[in-house]
Amino acid sequence: MSTTRGRVTLPSEENFLEETKELMDRWGADAIRDSNGTKLPDEIKALDAKIYTTYFVARNHNEHAEKHMDELQQLLLMSKHNLATSSTLKIDFMDGYYKEQFIPDYNHDPKEWWEVINRTTETVIPAEDWEVDQESNLVIIKNAKEFHEYTVSFFVYAIWDGTHMYNHITNNWGDDVPHDLPFDARMPNSNIYMNEYLEQWLKDNPQTDVIRFTTFFYHFTLIFNNLGKEKFVDWFGYGASVSVPALEAFEEEMGYKLRPEDIVDKGYYNTAFRIPTKEFLDYMEFTQRFVTAEAKRLVDKVHDAGKEAMMFLGDNWIGTEPYGDHFEKIGIDAVVGSVGGGATLRMISEIPHVKYTEGRFLPYFFPDEFYEGNDPTIEAVDNWLKARRAIMRKPVDRIGYGGYLSLAYKFPKFVDYIEKVTDEFRLIYDNINGVKPYTGLKVAILNSWGKLRSWQTHMVAHALWYKQIYSYLGVLEALSGASVDVSFISFEDVKQDGVPEDVDVIINAGDADTAFSGGHEWLDPQLVSTIRKWIYNGGGFVGIGEPSAVEHGGHFFQLADALGVDKELGFSLSTDKYFVDEVDKHFIKEEVVEDYDFGEGMKNIYATKESTEIIRYSNGEVNLSSNDYGKGRAVYIAGLPYSQQNTRLLMRSLFYAAHKEEEFTKWHASNINCEVHAYLESGKYAILNNSTKEQTTLVYDGNGKSREVTLEPGQIIWEEID
Amino acid sequence: MSTTRGRVTLPSEENFLEETKELMDRWGADAIRDSNGTKLPDEIKALDAKIYTTYFVARNHNEHAEKHMDELQQLLLMSKHNLATSSTLKIDFMDGYYKEQFIPDYNHDPKEWWEVINRTTETVIPAEDWEVDQESNLVIIKNAKEFHEYTVSFFVYAIWDGTHMYNHITNNWGDDVPHDLPFDARMPNSNIYMNEYLEQWLKDNPQTDVIRFTTFFYHFTLIFNNLGKEKFVDWFGYGASVSVPALEAFEEEMGYKLRPEDIVDKGYYNTAFRIPTKEFLDYMEFTQRFVTAEAKRLVDKVHDAGKEAMMFLGDNWIGTEPYGDHFEKIGIDAVVGSVGGGATLRMISEIPHVKYTEGRFLPYFFPDEFYEGNDPTIEAVDNWLKARRAIMRKPVDRIGYGGYLSLAYKFPKFVDYIEKVTDEFRLIYDNINGVKPYTGLKVAILNSWGKLRSWQTHMVAHALWYKQIYSYLGVLEALSGASVDVSFISFEDVKQDGVPEDVDVIINAGDADTAFSGGHEWLDPQLVSTIRKWIYNGGGFVGIGEPSAVEHGGHFFQLADALGVDKELGFSLSTDKYFVDEVDKHFIKEEVVEDYDFGEGMKNIYATKESTEIIRYSNGEVNLSSNDYGKGRAVYIAGLPYSQQNTRLLMRSLFYAAHKEEEFTKWHASNINCEVHAYLESGKYAILNNSTKEQTTLVYDGNGKSREVTLEPGQIIWEEID
After folding, report:
1. Residue among B119, B121, B573 minimizing CB distance to A468
2. Does the structure's ipTM exceed the value 0.90?
3. Is B315 considered catalytic here?
4. Cα–Cα distance, A221 to A240 (Å, whole number)
């Protein structure tokens, strides 16, 4: 039995009353939720706990949707590229799509709303040169140019919600469970329905304390292929918010008309890696205005019923943009999201304008992890240790779990561990909530998205690993639990307002031409000269991967002069590269105890000048370097997958870039597996062992005095500041 | 003593008469040459051998040059990038250059001929906004924009020939040896001088049979830094042909004026890796016209004197372009060049419009290789085995050596080996010269340069290794000794005339945006549709590295559809990549006996469709694949450094792409270290062991019948065709 209680949410289910009570006691839970696939029986709802009920606004209401099939959610899709081998080209535009997910929209005139594009010339084919065969779902182009490629951008209706489809297929729900039809909140009948239904529902569900919206109206883009497997997933994607009425409303509101191409974007669909166009930013703005206004209407009803409204950060979250300018308007009470590690925890815990945040921790109580012979504790430990670092900086207000509680119950070791975690969480929360942790310096992450996508850089599908992103995701993960303040600024911010005054170090991390590195944004003289001046006058800059990269004016890195390195594209092979020697000693490498790991690394980086301090050089390439530029410094790192050592390496890079080396060991642990977090206002500090082994470390206080401490695996020790 | 004689050129020197005679006998030499730093005494010139005498046209005549310092060769250089930290910026434009090599040209008005550029905006600064301080060699810019970068493009005179400088510094010739002043054949006094001097020289040197021009007028670009070390080297560079009079003549002849920027090209100086601009191609054309016309005048004089004219393919070869349209006009008798391996041998042996070609083999008889304790035979064996493959396809007519013969004489094992080589060469030559070798298929290498730079792709400094090129140079090296015909075609050729009818396979190999891959050339719909159509109708395509790469229309590889692979730039991470399984068996990998070696390889290549045959997949990337496209095929290879296995892998890729798998084992050796070359017209075939170990192989005849043969290290066996 837990000695403390609260801040913990449990899932429960039918026929599980006694065990639910037992686990509530042991984990100190004060709230109970249903999950996708479970329902809470009345006996559970009657327990002494807040009751969360999952609520779907725009799906799970087939009784409505079936009556208004013309109000189903639309998407604007692009066909495959099709090669014309003669002057007539027939395009099976649905080829590759899942016919159980989408049907073409013939309600709106294709000639008006679709676009046929010659992708070889990137020109639009006049409507008179193509026809639609609605019976066989073909677009037939005449006067096609031989061996040019053509695509069709076309509207569809979604006839199966993406998440419902995923759960349905994954869990083999079979033919008996009808497919959830997603409908569009923008459509007249649906808009009335969703409001009226909620009003009635609130009356019908007095035992519910918290309406857990999953979520509002527009699902992130999730498209399945002809085999029913995922074809396209963009957790940030606005694809499933686009409809003919939306484009009409856009034109009326924004004063100009979007082209289908503004949405399909050559098939890249404006993913977060694309440098956003003005048109797409306008569309996001337009959608946010609509979503937040309509969500507010629902949330107001919840409040009127005396209940709380919580949104799930996922599924139909598109257009809410919790870090955007419109989110506050919704008036939501809480946000809950899935915690994959430190960065995703901060993504939740930093959300402004809510009363509280809640993290859903891993593993989910599902059979893929909870099966005989497996130890789900291993994932739980890893998840907790990563998230705990971030909690030390900015806690979520609650933690919780999802899935089948009955499954978890069968794993006593797991139940024991979560008992420890929930107590530990409550102690941390009590010690630090509302108290600003000690911060060594202020870091701003600079990219095309800025604040809008705080803690959300380089993500494709929520918290999933991709070869192309892990070397950058490590930056956020390292920062999430580090003693630095982190903000997110956009190139536009810098052009408008310069670099915020309190920033010590700017980080620009990403592959060339992505929104995270910036690509053509760096062609703007205002941007590049502002950043140069800022560094030159004493600012710190840390570039990772291909920072400021766009071939222009004789550089690839537009900050090559500041960084002291550039990337060889082949054009300057004729120029001799003499600077290849590593410096013997360097502040940045003082705590390197394992092999360097730059992840995917970066090819063909070379030092452009003798003053460049090459800290790591291997295989004919600079991997890590620093350069003094006026009174400032710029550090280059080839890549930074998350690890304890790389966290330390990044921290040292930041402190070095900021010329704050002497402050690095304030509230510091010498062992890279340990970290110290100090809370000066409350007179406490914590020593963390982030590893699953016993660790001994020197612990430095705020005056740089040290003492040796040994910590158990994963231990956190609280101390009073003298 | 050699049993055969001829086709071999020896260097000789003073006080070495008897040994020269001995080595002439042993190596069967019939020609003797001087070298840089050696002179032939009369007693040697009297031997029964052709006498080559090195002749410098545009340097080594300080008696003339010192009188006409305003006729020294000019260059147009670019300063470093200079950061403006206030509105006044002083640029020390000579910073980083070697003051013993260049002096600024103040004879021509800098305001008219120089260019000051804001590299942040890529705009030219008006002449009224900058001044030159000639005393301190500064350009002073006023109204500079803060934290923009500026460069100065400025004319200099060269006061030391680059090759002379290199030899001078390397060999410590000391202060007593005056620096060779390079002068410009375009200048009036120099033009008269070089013609008159040659006339007199021809009269004064009756014993010389062959004038070995080293070479004509313009040295490849070779620039030294402030420490007297190489700063910039481009073996193809036209930098040292540019002068104010040249630009004036260009305007008159071509009808428009070049800007300095057309030459300095942001500091990349139009290296061969840059996709050539129209302006630079025009400048090359203009220079070729001048060089070939003036060279013809000299060569005519040589012929009038009853002697032969030979040019050295190097040093001042710029503007001759042996594969260009103007070379024939010179009327040169022979070309001699340094042989670094098979590709450089073919670069020499394929030169048209000459009576004979000669390869200078390695090692050069210099102390860097010929020193006590070292065995120069090792390099000689390696050089010979690589070159011999190429000789089997198209022989040079003569081989030779350079340096100090007295040094080589001290290494008896080396002397023995060269005796064997020279005999072997003569036998090969007698067996194959003028006879077309058996050829399995015809390959065209497609890039921006085409025929003009035949056998010269991906080269920076002659035959030197660079990390960025070896994975592509292997393609030429493999082809140089393979049973295929090789031609070189440009994108312009394809646009004008389509793909030549007899081509079986097109190769496009290189990094994105280089002249070898093609970059923006692939945006031309005419080009891309012609190539697509050609493949679709049965052509073969082999893409290596980043073939046809330029981000456009939703592809990075413009031939992605044909290749069945593309490169992930981050924009399509949201699209699931399902095709990752290697095929079990494949024609292309049937002779893979060692680990795959793709050299630098290529990151983030993925299969775009199920039909793609993935032959090698590692580390989340496709390294080797093939795809059927209509009746044709396209093979992708991530990189191809030279090796026996990669030669085989490339050959199989070519035959597979061409749908000629069944012809692959005609005149074939099963052991990858061996090759077979057949000469059907003369009824002979040769079996080569390209390795330094004994090898046993099956040898296939033209009907696919095989027998087993064992070869000594490096052995070549000649057989009659039944």
Report:
1. B573
2. yes
3. yes
4. 6
